[in-house]
Amino acid sequence: MRALPKRLRSPMEDTRICDLELSIVAPCYNEVLGLHELVRRCCDSAAAAVGDSYELILVDDGSTDDTWQTMICLTAHQNVVALKLSRNFGHQFALTAGLSAVRGRAVLIIDADLQDPPELLAQMLQRMKETSADIVYGQRNSRAGETWLKTWTSKLFYRLLGGVDTYRIHRTMAARVTTAR
After folding, report:
1. Domains and CATH numbers, the chain
2. What is the pLDDT of residues 94-111, one digit of tens each?
3. pTM score, whole prediction
4. Which of 6, 92, 96, 118 minimizes the number of CB atoms within 10 Å of its CB?
5. Largest separation between any pair of C-alpha atoms in the chain
6. In this structure, is the dihedral angle defined by the CA atoms of residues 8, 176, 47 and 119, taken in order, positive or negative?
7. Cα–Cα distance between 129 and 124 in angstroms, integer?
8. Which of 57, 66, 56, 59 is nearest to 88 (CA)?
9. Per-residue confidence band for 141, with pLDDT thresholds at 50, 70 and 90
10. How far apart are CA 13 and CA 10, in angstroms?
11. What is the CB neighbour count within 10 angstroms for residue 106?
């Protein structure tokens, strides 16, 4: 996990209402089979970290299965919010739609396919608080079945991300969040 330091903000830059401690955004596309598990694990992790002061925003990116109907059922949980896009716009647009609806002072993003464990969200939030970071992201050490090209391009991406002038990434961390997967 990496943390990027907080930057200075103008008072007019962020006008959204932040009445919750945490917002979690999960773009979803044809995820009907894993949604119940995603919601259970994300809500358990968020509740352990911030009590009831969180929301889980699920964004249906034009799914062709029963993802939307399942999302509607899952909104019976008071902390779950469902958004539906009119068609499949792609992961980044779905993510942007979710981010536009957040009410949390901190925002974490997770993919709905559960490739990354929601149980790490609390540790990422803690790292964000400890370092007063704007951005905290997880980086896997390895994934089963990755080709050398995928591994190389991933390392290149994180090296380039570390070179962005706007933020300086903390490379030395005592509390590194990783997963054995």
Report:
1. 2-6+17-162 (3.90.550.10)
2. 999 999 999 999 999 999
3. 0.73
4. 92
5. 47
6. positive
7. 9
8. 59
9. low
10. 5
11. 21
Integer Cα distance of 140 and 148 in angstroms? 15
What ranges make up the beta strands (E) of 17-157? 20-28, 54-60, 80-84, 104-109, 133-137
* Structural tokens at position 68: 């939307």
How far apart are alpha carbons 47 and 41 in whole angstroms? 10
Residue with tokens 């991406």: 157
Q: Provide the terminal-to-terminal Cα distance of the chain, rounded to the nearest Å.
A: 15
In terms of Cα–Cα distance, which of 106, 134, 87, 114 is closest to 26? Answer: 114
Q: Do you know the residue count of the chain?
A: 181
Point out which residues pair with 5 in neighbouring strands. 133
**φ, ψ of residue 171 in degrees (nearest 5):** -95, -25
- Per the structure block, which two tokens stand in for 38? 């995603």
Alpha-carbon distance values, 154 to 45, 142, 146, 163 (Å): 27, 10, 10, 14
